[in-house]
Amino acid sequence: MSTKSPIILKKHTICKIQDFLNPADSLILRVKQAEPDSAFITLNDDYFRNQLNSSFKHLVEKFGIKTYNPIIVTLLDSKAADEKIRELEEQIANLQMAQGTIRSPGSWSVSSSTESAPPRIWFRMRGEDQAISFSPTHLNDIYIVDDLKEVIKDKLELDVPKNRIIIYKGETNLKGDIFITGLYNQIDEALEIVIKEVETMKMVVTADNKEFYFENAPRTGSPEEIIKFINSIPSLKPLIVDCTVLGDDYYQLSEQHIKFAQKSGGCLKIILSKPGVIDTGFETHRITLEEAFSYQFKDPHGMKKNFMNYLNEKHKAWKRNINNYVPYSTIFQSSGYGKSRLIKETAKTIPTIYICLRDPRSTGYPPRTSVGADLFERVLGDLKEEEEWKFLYVLQNAILCFKEELKNSTSEELWNNQMDASFCERIWTDIQKKSETWRNISFDAINSSNNLISDDNTDDVHLLFCIDEARTLLSQDNYKKISLFRFFRRALRHITWNGFFVMFLDTLSRISNFAPPKSADPSGRDDSNLPLKLFYPYFRLTTMDILKSDDNEYNEHNEYFNLAKFGRPLYFSYLQSCKDNTQAIGKLKNLLSRKLLGGANSFKESQQEISSLAILSSVIGIDMSPQSRLTSELVASHMTTCLALSEDRERLIIAYPSEPLLSEVALEFMSDSTLPEILKQFNSSLKKGLVEPGPRGEIVSRIILAVVAHNLKKKGSVNSVKDFLTELYHEDSTPDLTNFSDDFIDGSVAFTHFNAVSYVPERKDLENFYKRRCAFIMKRNHPGADICIPVRMKTGEKYSVIIIQIKNISTSKTDQKYPASAQSMLNCDYVFEGTDLKNHTEPCLCLYWQLGYKQHYQESHSSRSTRSGNLETKNLYWVTFGLTHYKIEDNIADILRDMLTSYVSPFDSEWIVNNEEGDNWDDNELKIMHPLRYEKYKEEEENQEKEEIE
After folding, report:
1. For residue 175, what are the contacts with CB-CB under 8 A and spacing of at least 6?
2. Residue-wise burial string across 39-74, b where 16 or more C-beta atoms lie within 10 A, e elsewhere
3. Which among 467, 546, 556, 676 is most buried, taking Cβ atoms within 10 Å?
4. Which pairing describes strands 121-125 and 191-195: parallel, antiparallel, or unpaired?
5. Around Cβ 321, how many Cβ atoms within 10 Å?
6. Banded model confidence at residue 846, pLDDT cuts 50, 70, 90
7. Residue 792 backbone phi and psi in degrees, to 5
């Protein structure tokens, strides 16, 4: 037989062979007659030279080609074709006819049984005795193993994806692209079917400020597969709408993030959000924030000195009791106060290793530390319990590398270098290489001496390790459901390096994890006999108003530029960094809007209960209960300031200081469309006890005034007192201004928010409050007045005040001191006794509101009564009884009436539970449990039933 070059088949001839061909490859074809005793022959050019034989149909008919009598195709490099053909012919000649199977290196398909009866493919599930088979007629159009898996899946009704089905022939795992022609067999040679266990990974899904942990989520490879998995989880379905996306936008969850989580064995973190939702950190364009971060540092209150003293004292306490403390503490406060900037200034004095764990997709500044952040998260994610000390090997290498840098750099230069991405990539790549063997080290590899940092026996910190955006360590999880932070903290317990200290930076959202309450600290269970003590966090960043000094001149052409000087430093430094950008104010206000809403794009998309508290608190000044579950979240994500933290870390005192820009943004939410829902949510919080009860009348009055301020703001930032009264009262409830001072009536009000004072204001305070657009709430139980609104007189640099006394008496009566409470006790010499405002000579507007009155009544006093008689006065006194005097929509008035009488009651809807699980509310059960208090309810019901019968 000729051994010329074998035929290279054309496309579409045999089972899509072209899919496997390279240009230099050749094919050898071997066939035999259908009879059992026929021998194989090799087809070459001589066979196909005859035109008749070139027909593939003729080939099939002549040799009886069927599924169980296939053409054997061998792929060969063309150079080896002749020699290989000779070898194959020799093998064929020596074969016994009944054996009928030829295998050759590189062949794609193999002939099967030569028995006269059509063969079958037998298979069974591994571990089972029963075998099932397919005849050739069942396998029409089935060519390769992947296709066979689909047939097996249907036959056995397997509810698993095809990629989990494995077919074994003996010990061989059959690849999906192998042709099935060689798989025809006898029952005792049945193929084995194995269902592969699902490969899993750890996943945490965050939605609506809730976290859902999945220990055994499928190991997926694309965002599409993640979406499919999330959609299959019943607990997540209520949180998913048509516009839900992964992360800040769809593309932020990339295959790179998925592969990293798979490789590191860490936890894949998924965020479900709405389009346009941004990171809850104080994020905007990185370039602008970088410039703002470099704005001149001012420290009039010695914050840096205080912080360095804090560091050294904590280090000293650890050094003296190394078995009872861990050398770390935390800095927390809400966004914009300058936590990272404080570290920058400290780093000029104390050498600092800085690592930022910010999300790599964030545009915040400082940016995520290249390579270093990945290294930390990966190593901490791979740690096992009782081996936490191995992390110190990485930490030790980092210290040694940075100490080497300090040989040629100052502390300040080292910090500046770490703000450069190329430097971070270089040094952390070096640290990563030096730490590659961390899994296999022994404890001896850890430097246990106390002089790794410093040779002297210092009490001060000589090297600070700072971890910014540290919340990442809390949200990531590992096999044992122990946060990366706790692994880190356990590792720090083994440190003996004198002069070394660690600081974590973040907002307060998870302070209970960084510095857990004493009653719930999981690290209290320790190998030592002494309980682990945690240092009190550092949160008193005294940066409020530091940029309102005289060298920042008043800009009469840009009101927002002036208002930005009041409050936390980021506002003004941000505007300064882009003062030539005409859209800077809009971008800053948009940022503050999102911050108030916890990162959401609109109030509707936000977590409305807490967003309502944030909006109202920043406008009307609400006192939150220190025990409220919402206090830490308000600090972390809604711009609230933490003023105090109890020593046991169980309670927080929070507040919204006067920040005109922030309050103006909040005021814009109090529109006719949004305000009703805000007030409903707030009223519900009152009934749940989340907010300090306080005088309900004062809260309602401030809401009324805030609505007025919102409506006035549409006309301009400054409005006349006359416009204020017109917007406040219905026409028939407006006081007669005929004989009142034009200088006052034409003067201006500009308030956008309220702040409580603990002192009696002086004359200069009227100007200060006016300039920052703030009305003030008198301290609780202050005699004579509850609210004061500064007024700038029309002529000259003079200021006066609108004084308001609030009553909430739910009867037709007045308070016991009326009318004196609406006249002689409602003026400057009584309200501001003890200050220079006692002798205030400018006219004032004095308003007396009795909000609890159910009817409608009003009166004016042109003079004020005293024990010696009536005295003429420059002031205007105006008294109103009831809520019907004020220009508020009916639906708003209904909510405010309910708010005036609301209190925490188990009969309110907020406490009633009725569900499909059989929890059914019954008023009578509660009355039985507390009969003396609620028996009256029962009596009223019985009386009502009697009336109905009669």
Report:
1. 145
2. ebbbbbeebbeeeeeeebeebeeebebebbbbbbbb
3. 467
4. parallel
5. 11
6. very high
7. -95, 115
Bridge partners, 850 (sequence order): 807, 881
Read off the tokens for 896: 């405010």
Q: Provide the token pair at 501.
A: 């200290």
Minimal CA–CA distance to 484: which of 472, 501, 467?
A: 472
Residue type, position 477, single letter? D
Closest residue by Cα to residue 194 from 124, 131, 133: 124
H or E element, residue 933: helix 931-949
pTM: 0.67
d(CA 131, CA 122): 7
Rounded to the nearest 5°, which phi and psi values hold at 791?
-125, 130
133: left (phi over 0), alpha (psi -120 to 50) or beta: beta
Question: One-letter amino acid identity for 90?
Answer: E
Q: How far is CA 293 from the centre of its chain?
A: 23
Residues 220, 226 contacting (CB under 8 angstroms): yes
Cis peptide before 819 (omega within 30 of 0): yes
Which residue, 908, 898, 276, 899, is CA-closest to 616? 899
Contact present, 21 and 74 (Cβ < 8 Å) = no
Q: Walk me through the domains of the chain, giving residue ranges and CATH numbers.
A: 1-112 (no CATH), 121-195 (3.10.20.90), 200-273 (3.10.20), 302-524 (no CATH), 544-692 (no CATH), 694-702+712-912 (no CATH)
SS3 783: coil
The backbone torsions φ and ψ at residue 708, rounded to the nearest 5 degrees and listed phi first, read -60, -45
Report the share of the chain in percent with pLDDT over 70.
73
In tens, the pLDDT along 533-552 reads 789 899 999 999 988 874 55
In three-state secondary structure terms, 434 is helix
- Look at residues 273, 358, 280, 288 and name the one whose alpha carbon lies nearest to residue 588: 288
Could you tell me the two tokens for 18?
A: 């072209």
Q: What is the DSSP string of 69-119?
A: BPPEEEEEEGGGHHHHHHHHHHHHHHS-TTT-----TTBS-------SSPP
Higher pLDDT, 940 or 235: 235
Q: What is the pLDDT of residue 678?
A: 95
Strand partners, 865: 870
Helix (H) or strand (E) holding 343, with range, is helix 339-347
* Half-sphere exposure at residue 279, Cβ-oriented, CA atoms within 13 angstroms: 19
Query: CA 405, CA 421: separation in Å to the nearest integer?
Result: 16
901 neighbors 810 (Cβ within 8 angstroms)? yes
**Do 110 and 95 contact (CB within 8 A), yes or no?**
no
pLDDT digits (tens, 9 = 90+) for 23-67: 444 556 777 665 555 666 666 655 655 545 555 666 666 666 665
What is the three-class DSSP state of 869? Answer: strand
Closest CA to 281 of 468, 55, 15: 468
Q: What is the pLDDT of residues 463-522, one digit of tens each?
A: 999 999 887 787 545 445 677 888 888 888 888 899 999 999 987 544 444 555 544 444
The DSSP annotation for 458-523 comes to: -SS-SEEEEEESTTHHHH---TTS--HHHHHHHHHTT---TTEEEEEEE-GGGHHHHS--GGG-GG
- Number of neighbours of residue 125 by Cβ within 10 angstroms: 17
Q: Looking at 672-760, which runs of residues are DSSP E strands?
A: 719-720, 748-749, 753-756
| pLDDT, greater one: 858 or 221 | 858
User: Which residues have C-beta within 8 Å of that of residue 658, sequence separation ≥ 6?
Assistant: 566, 567, 753, 755, 772, 774
Q: Check residue 242 and report its DSSP letter.
A: T
